[in-house]
Amino acid sequence: MKPIKWDGQKITQPGIYSGIPIDLYHGDICDGPSVSSSGLGKIVDESPADYWATSYMNPEREDDEDAADESSALLLGRAVHHLILGEKNFKSAFVIQPQTYTSEKDGEKPWSNNAKVCKEWHAEQRRAGRAVLTKSDAETIIGMAKSVGRDEMVQAGILKGLIEHSIFWKDKKTGIWLKARPDNIPAYAIAEGGRSADISDLKTIINVQWKTIDKAIEDRGYYRQAALNRLGLREVGGIDVSSFTLVFVGKKKPWSTRPIILKPGSLDKGDEVIRVGLDVMARCLADKAWPGPGRGPARDIAEYAELSEWAVNRIDARLQRLKDTFAIK
User: Fold this and answer.
1) In 72-158, beta strands by DSSP E
2) Is residue 85 within 8 Å of residue 94, measured between CB atoms?
3) Is residue 67 very low, low, confident or very high in pLDDT (cuts 50, 70, 90)?
4) Are the CB atoms for 163 and 184 separated by under 8 Å?
5) Crossing angle for the helix pair 222-237 and 264-287, to the nearest 10 degrees
């Protein structure tokens, strides 16, 4: 099986495609409703309403209030991926912000994003499609890249393969298009087909302490993302994913790396999440309704709540202390 070079039209056939920009990948790219791991995560972890609020299918969608902060947080990770994974044209995608600018009145001054000249420079970069990095960002990216390059598994070739290819296929039960975008797909798996492959994704993280990684795997849905990549490669290429490794790299000095192989049970749990998410999405599409948390066709009244055992024990302890203090029997 060979990757398909995207022709700029909507996807109508399952396959592994090259040349699809990430913003179009997340948008109206297929000839029917489509969803990625992040979309399914919103449906399951938050609610259909939260997914619909920012969905490309929603004609009344509003910009995410956290979009600016999110783009700032994701920018560093995107640049690191671009550089470390060997994507082409880094300089055309990113630019380093100058540290000074020239004022007609005062000459050379420290850079200020409030100054007219600086605002015009930023506008020029946006028009050119370049993301702006600070000098500090650049130093961090270089540090992370060097650290990743020294990792034994990376040196063995774990991150080498087809970079940022997009996988598209239809869910047989619902007809919804699924899309996945592994950081890399081993070239041997594509060339030979029908064989097993070791897949890996590069992940930037605040630090590589176990508690941070453990939380990220669940909260950021990395187990679900891995499961969707596994499903897509099997459906489209007949490729059996024998292992899935998350190569974590810290965002702060010493930019430590920590490869983590997800156990099969975690990917199986991701399969369950994908299945439920798709079934819920299909029902919402059919009903043309996207309810909030706890709401749905089978539950549209108030729910019942009960104090947890932990809460009851704490309350009982407080009451007992008061009784003892005031000699109440």
Assistant:
1) 94-96, 100-103, 107-110, 131-133
2) no
3) very low
4) yes
5) 80
| pLDDT digit string, tens, across residues 92-113 | 888 999 999 988 787 889 999 8
Nearest to 160 by CA among 126, 185, 130, 191: 185
Angle between helices 135-150 and 67-84 (to 10 degrees): 40
| Model pTM score | 0.85
Amino acid (one-letter) located at 316: D
Residue type, 56: Y
**% of the chain exceeding 70 in pLDDT:** 95
Burial of 84 (0-12, 13-18, 19+ CB in 10 A): buried
Q: From 261, 248, 252, 259, select the one nearest 216 (Cα to Cα).
A: 248
| One-character DSSP codes across 208-268 | --HHHHHHHHHHTTHHHHHHHHHHHHHHHH--EEEEEEEEEEESSTT--EEEEEEPHHHHH
